[in-house]
Amino acid sequence: MTQVHGDTGAGVRAPGDGTAGWAIAHLGVNATLAAPTSIIPDHVPDRQRTRVSGLVGMMTSVAMVAMAVDLALAVQLVRSVR
After folding, report:
1. Is the CB of residue 1 less than 8 Å from the CB of residue 18?
2. What percentage of the chain carries pLDDT values higher than 90?
3. How far apart are CA 37 and CA 39, in angstroms?
């Protein structure tokens, strides 16, 4: 990530730092998760709905963090091989 610092010292992201790729990845994740999230009310009893919705939301966040860590490790591995 490229940081550009102004007079105030505040970090500003420069173009080409991966923001567009991150946005495209999130579009794909959101499109993928729309269907499973929307069928929860149809397949889960009322008294279990909050627990299942919470678990789906929590596991989605855990999966995204795990994927980011995995990607960072893969990038380090590829750079170390060069």
Report:
1. yes
2. 18
3. 6
What pLDDT, in 10s, does the model give residues 16-39?
Answer: 667 787 788 888 888 888 888 888
CA nearest to 52, candidates 63, 64, 37 = 37
- pTM tops 0.70, yes or no: no
Measuring CA to CA, which residue among 39, 62, 34 is closest to residue 52? 39
Q: Token pair for residue 58?
A: 């929590």
**What single DSSP character describes residue 17?**
S
Using an 8 Å Cβ cutoff, are 55 and 49 in contact? no
d(CA 33, CA 10): 35
